[in-house]
User: Fold this.
Amino acid sequence: MRTVRFLLQKEFRQIFRNRAILAMVIVMPVIQLLILPLAANYEVKNINIAVIDNDHSSYSQKLISKITSSGYFKLTGYNFSFKEAFRLIETDDADLILEIPHDFERNLVRENEQKLFIAVNAINGTKANLGGVYLTSIIKDYNGEVRLQLISPTKFNRAPAIDIASSNWFNPFLNYHVFMVPGILAILVTMIGGFLTALNIVKEKEVGTIEQINVTPIKKHHFILGKLIPFWVLGNVVFTLGLIVAWFIYGIIPAGNIFLLYSFVSVYLLAVLGFGLLISTFCDTQQQAMFIMFFFMMVFILMGGLFTSIDSMPDWAKEVTKFNPVSYLIEVMRMIILKGSGFKDITRQLGIIALFAVVLNSWAIFNYKKTS
Amino acid sequence: MKQFLIFIKKEFAHVLRDRKTLLILFGMPVVQILIFGFALTNEVKNARIAILDQANDPASHQLITQIEASKYFETEIAVMNPKQMEEAFKQGSIRLAVIFPANFNNELLHQNGVKIQVIADASDPNNATTLTSYVTSIIQDYLAAVNKTTSAPYRIVPEIRMLYNPQLKGAPSFVPGVMALVLMLVCVMMTAVSIVKEKETGTMEILLVSPFKPLLVITSKAVPYLILSLVNVASILLLSVFVLDVPVNGNVFLLFAESTLFIITCLTLGIFISVKTSSQQVAMLISLMGMLLPTILFSGFMFPIENMPVALQVFSNIIPAKWYYIIVKAIMIKGLGFSAIWKETLILSGITVFLLIISLKSFKIRLS
Assistant:
């Protein structure tokens, strides 16, 4: 145990000596957490719409004003030809085109049915999708109003109706920040832990100091512990700062037990640090370590359920995410912070992460050879 | 000139000797393209939902069958009580619950009005909105079928056409995004680190006292990465066309020319970082920790930039990946020509020149 204590003293001293890195490691995540959730916003508003009104009737006017007053759409083009409106799509100045055909009002009243044409720039997947959905539902509403106006009350025959009462749990105001902040914090903690450990050991290799440690009677697991503990502490510090930012800036207070959250993160950090160590045992230069870590980080982030939902992935991809530690952290953070899930709800994730921690660290110890 | 070529050769040898890095360098775009193309989608489907059928009558059964038949949902637990439902939400095993009241059939047909409750897990707001709207439209379809005899008059039928991407696949928006992301990070990291490494090990001093101009030293370091990155562009495009079915609709040469410009921008940024830093770790932390998430977020391919607060919209303008993303999207997907992207090209060139000038200015100072 004494050996570990001395090793820790050395490691901590090295970390604190390097003020630039220390500041960066602590300040950068905080700044990113302050800014990024504001940018990661799917709240759909300001959908740019170009309207081609070929009818110029009171009906078409009413529809257009209904669309523009809905709060979702911004009229960026009005009464162009389709060709001109399409130019707006090409230059990204419009996301949607609504074309109201000639005789819209007349046909609707006389022939009981009238089509409306909507063209959506579908390169921007989400925006297109939601924009289409919103526009259709506005048109549906409008349709209802028209009907009420046209049908005399006596003609109403009471048809079966279903009233849908929808409610939103855990985030009733549909605030997107609340969803993104825990996820982004998860990524930042992972990056800090992973990159620092991966680079640290490789640096000793590159500089040659590791040889000196190798010739001492220090046990392998002592050495690994000496490397793990400082970064584990640092990871927890970053995590705590992140929670404070989430609370102060975004008003997010964990709905669940904060100790449960910390317990999970503590085990998780062991797993990530183990992963960093494992990578560093495979590499000879910092450059290599960084690239390999970068590769995994990209896959972890993109397949972690941060930006796109894991549910919607194909089956093979779901299998892959089972080996992605980040996906568990993101899931559990959102569960505990937003839904107030308890220990019973996260037992499975905790078990898997603990297994990750054991396997990765043992592998790293096994792979770290004292003789090169 | 001959000296310069020899230098480039030396740098190439350095790069090619490191097999592990090379593997990652060329493997990464391939894996990313496959992940983006096949695994990621903004579409919501296979969402697990629960149904609380308190009616258990023919009408509720019929409607449940229709909900189950939809590709958007996967009904995991068909029968549940409210307490189980709450637990399932907390465990994250369901995203939505549909609750049928007792006497559903009876109230629907004879009392002209029945209430279905839909509860969504709004911790993911978009998912909640989308799923609720899917369920609503299934219920409305069902209702329309029930009411078939009394079909509603004065119908407005919206006809929606999806431009450029009729099947709403993820790939057409993700391929340009991956190109921007991979090129950006690879180029910046590689140059930043390789120059700082020479500083750290002290070999830079030797290069600088040689009769060789500093500018040429640095250029010769950047050239191999420029060539490797162009190979990456080619492999991403080949995969995109042959594996993902996303064709290059515009001019391929224009696309390569613009890619070269973007790569040079990133290489310059890498040089700038390496001039300003003194250790590999700092250079890496800046180019990775500092740039990975911002590049993903501010290039515009994940989140629409118009939705951001004004300050961030302004900030996004200095992210080169944003401009490149617009350029690739225009050439590749929309099939537009240079006239549509000259502005973006100009901005990208401007950023490059600016970075180059301040890097050179800082570099003149002798190493201390």
Summary: Residues 296 and 324 of chain A are 9 Å apart (CA to CA). Chain A has a mean pLDDT of 85. Chain A has two domains: 2-40+172-367, 47-150.
